[in-house]
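User: I want to check something. If I give you two sequences, will you return the structure for each one separately, not as a complex?

Assistant: Yes, each is folded on its own. Here is the first sequence with its structure:
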Amino acid sequence: MTELNVGKKHLLEAVKKVYASKYSPKALYYRVDNGLSDAETPMAVLVVEMLDAAVSGVIYTADPAGSSAGTLTIHSLWGLGEPLVSGEISPDILTVDKNIPHDIIHRQHGDKFTEMVCDGQGKGLQRTVPEDRRRALSLDDNAARELAGIAL
């Protein structure tokens, strides 16, 4: 669960909501379906300053499936990252060689029909992505190479 644009006054309340989300029906179903105990799925809360991001994403420096030790993957989309981590939007995926100069090995376009942006009132707002940006990768090769270097 993600709580966006939380001020200091409401931080403790938001942290409690995030911790409680570990016991949501969706989270419980996932653990039971995958044979995971409560102890095997520890919970953490990350608090960071909110930015009105043009592009957001997640970098996997190790392949979760363990199939390739020589690459990393960058999952990115337009706007704030909450729709990515919640699974609402299919991101762009770039597979990058870990060796310098961090060649881009594979590019996969996601279905970026909407993006989340800051609405100026402390909430995230979903808006339609124009057609030309839907077809474009949210990161260019130079940005992907730079991010790979930082991540490694």
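And separately, the second sequence with its own structure:
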Amino acid sequence: YAARSLWALMTAGKIAEAREWLDQLPPDMIEGDLELRLVAASVLAFSDRNADSLAIAREVLDEPDTAAHTRATALRIAAGSAVFADRLGLLPGFLAKWPGPTEEGTGPVFTLAALNTRAIYALHKGETSQVRGFIGQQAPYGDAGTLRLGAALGRMLSAMSHLWEGHPVRAEAALLPALLHAERDGRRDAIACLLASVLATACYQRGDSEQAQALL
């Protein structure tokens, strides 16, 4: 129950709340349950403890008899941790092992995670059209329930690709509707904050520093 609850909070973008609950769980409880340990690693991937998250994921991946769903989960965590730790050189290795959309143990959450990971790697190589191509593949899955955080990250990356090309107006148009929607669930949760930060950059680049400050 703890694992399912933390997973629901994390994928909905309630990362701070998930971290608060995680800090209240006894360490031996987390250590003794693989599912709970991986969910805990998912939460830690978005924090200053992303190195711990990566270590947990790698430990699971090194086990030769890891089940398909567990391996997919560990790969998603490892990729997310590497991104937040700014260790993008690790991403190709994780993506090479990523299961296909029809393989056992996968689903929409893992598909969006793979597309976001590929988009991040493309963005840092300056391949901005590829970024939007990867994110465009997310559209059929929607952005409800456990897909909220993944879909929001995709929108953010698409907007960043416009900023990379020097088109802040396009970035603003891509993010503003999504931010207004996200704010209904809380102006200071992770999704609203990550969208607002990039939108603020777009406003600042087009000369509206007051709006940028308000968003921040």
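Because they were folded independently, the notes below concern the second chain alone. The two ends are 36 Å apart (CA to CA). The chain has a mean pLDDT of 90.
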